[in-house]
Design a protein that fits this description.
Length: 311
């Protein structure tokens, strides 16, 4: 009689609420399956986050489709957002600002050549920028050359100073890595003294690369370069005090390799930059402007504007 009591208790409870005992057990099975499903999803999320520990949830949703499909699991975007919040895996942006360029100098400044330009193939336009990374007791400065079409980082250099040498080293790496050396190429940057220096300009001229610069100091004129800086620092956890120069340089090298070869880019039809660099013609953009109401106004956040890790 004692062994049957739980079953009898469940039967009476189900009858009280107008449900069958089978419905009760079916619900328990679904809850158990759901818990297992969540566990599998979270395990794959953590596997991805080992290499890209600040990648946004929308890109995670895209990258999870194939591995979860092997388990016969399909999840929606909202489901993943809720699961990430529930397990404190949701990423929040951190905004910081340090000025890394000085445009108030005597050297010659060039016009903006890409203002109305339609970019439809790799190595048509390169964009350059410098961002800061904190070392153990000082700042380091990362110079980047990015292809505007494929978003591939073509060249980079990391130094303890803001001299033109870091920018020159990054440009030399980019030139050496060109896949289409006969293509007419424009180099676009801000008006920083590093990019106006004789050594840098001479290197561009020797390699028959046209020179373009922002005109009004507006960061949106060099939005792609700013965006790539934000991705590297936010998604690859380059904020906060790091180790010494050598160890941080190693980490940057690994992160750039992951960015170029593994991370899908929403502006390039979810291709990796390396894959997109072998394409021609317009690439479908997989992001949409996000609108947020703030009192009586609305703010749009886009891929080329304010950084939103969800896109």
């Amino acid at each position: 009689m004692k062994q049957n009591f739980p079953k009898l208790g469940i039967k009476l409870l189900c009858r009280q609420f107008g449900k069958t005992r089978h419905a009760y057990y079916d619900h328990q099975w679904r809850v158990q399956d759901l818990g297992l499903k969540d566990e599998i999803v979270l395990q794959h999320v953590l596997d991805i986050r080992k290499k890209q520990n600040r990648i946004g949830t929308l890109k995670l949703h895209y990258m999870l489709q194939e591995p979860l499909g092997q388990h016969g699991i399909k999840i929606g975007r909202d489901y993943l957002f809720d699961l990430m919040r529930e397990h404190s895996l949701y990423i929040r942006n951190r905004k910081r600002k340090v000025f890394t360029t000085n445009s108030r100098h005597w050297m010659h400044k060039y016009n903006n050549l890409i203002k109305e330009l339609v970019i439809n193939h790799p190595e048509q336009v390169w964009v350059s920028d410098i961002t800061y990374i904190q070392l153990r007791k000082q700042w380091g400065y990362l110079s980047l050359i990015t292809d505007a079409y494929s978003k591939k980082i073509m060249g980079w250099a990391f130094r303890k100073d803001l001299s033109a040498q870091g920018c020159t080293d990054a440009l030399e790496m980019a030139v050496a890595d060109r896949k289409y050396p006969e293509t007419k190429l424009i180099h676009h940057s801000d008006r920083g003294s590093q990019y106006c220096s004789k050594a840098y300009v001479d290197l561009l001229i020797r390699n028959r690369i046209a020179i373009s610069m922002t005109e009004n100091g507006d960061p949106y004129e060099n939005a792609i370069a700013e965006r790539v800086n934000g991705i590297l620092k936010a998604e690859f956890d380059l904020y906060g005090p790091q180790t010494g120069l050598k160890e941080t340089t190693r980490k940057i090298r690994e992160n750039i390799q992951t960015y170029n070869q593994i991370r899908p880019h929403a502006s390039c039809d979810y291709l990796t930059p390396e894959q997109a660099h072998h394409k021609q013609g317009e690439l479908k953009k997989r992001w949409k402007p996000k609108k947020y109401k703030q009192e009586q106004s609305a703010t749009c956040i886009t891929e080329s504007g304010i950084i939103d890790l969800r896109v």
